[in-house]
Every structure is written in C-alpha cells, then in structure tokens.
Amino acid sequence: MTTRKKTRVAILISGRGSNMIALIEAARAPDYPAEIVLVLSNRPEAGGLAYAAAAGIPARAIDHKAYPTRETFDAALQAELDAVGIELVCLAGFMRIFSAGFVEAWAGRMINIHPSLLPLFRGTRTHEQALEAGVRLHGCTVHFVIPELDAGPIIAQAAVPVLSGDDPDSLAARILVQEHRLYPAALALVAGGKARLEGDRVVFDADVALAQSALLSL
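== Phosphoribosylglycinamide formyltransferase ==
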C-alpha cells in the first residue's frame, strides 16, 4: 500500500494562535494528511511564534509595517512560502487583507476560519453582531479564501446554541472550542484531497458526502 505524501502547510497568524495550536497538535498524528512546516506572522510580538518555535516548527515574523504597500508585503510572504515549498496556507487569526493577486495565486490552496456561520456576520465583532441580531444559533466556518472578504466557498461549519445569558465573551469561548475541533478536521479534508475547490463550489469525495448526509439526518 502506497503512503500518501503529506501536504506541506504554512499557518499565518497575528496573535496567540490558538487555532494554530489546534492544527499543530492534530498534525502530530501519524495518519494526518498535512505537515505543518512553517508559521508566519505579520506581527513580531505575536505570541504564537514562540509556541511554534518550541514545537520545532520554523516560525518567522514579516512585519507589515516595514513594507510600503500591501503588494510588497504580500510579495515578501510569497517568497517565504516558496522557499520551503508550501502547498497549502491556513489563516489562523491573520489580521491582514491580502491583495487580489496574492489571493488569486493561492486559489483553492488557502483556507481560513471565521467565527460565525457565514454568510452571516462577516468582518469583525461577530459575536456582538450575533447577539444584536437575536439569532438562536451561532458558530464558526472554514472556507476557501477569495478576494472578497469572508465570502469564499464553505468547507465546514459548526454551530452552538445562543443561550439567554450569553454575552460576547461567553459566546466566543464556547465557539472557540468548536473552532479547535473544526479547523483540524477541515484541513484534513483539503490536505487529503477529499475536499477541493471547483469553480465557486467545494466538491467532496463520495465518502465524505455520505458521512455528511448521515450526520444531517440525525
């Protein structure tokens, strides 16, 4: 039986990188289809860099303030990704908007996790938005990145009920638990070739689609 080559993944962070940690921990499993080989941050003070380095993963900062334009910063990022043969990029709390050219170059090979059930509540303050709107379900979404912010085709979602006593912090904490489960699962689907972008839709292998149908019928 031929062992599938693991997909080489870079994680981009701007802060503590709690979703980065979840991905790194998941990738320790021998049968996980992705290998985390690089962590990059646009902020030298990002706490997640130290964790990645301690885990033995090359971790570097590319300070966006040192670059005069969005395009020159993106070019510096691209150079780092190319240097180590990155095949798939995961955004984990990366608080920069890319140039359209950079996003298009990584079409179908860059994913993000967003703390809402997209297409609801794009942008920031998602938990406040959910409470203000009075929704009964809130959650998180993993999606492919496209030039339009928080609008890419959806790979996976997880939902939690909004409770009567919730405030933004309590809701965020409960959703973060789901983020840490959902992102590694979604990365495994993409890295393992079981979910891929075709046009503007995500196409799943038959076994994944069957499992999703079974879950929805419960």
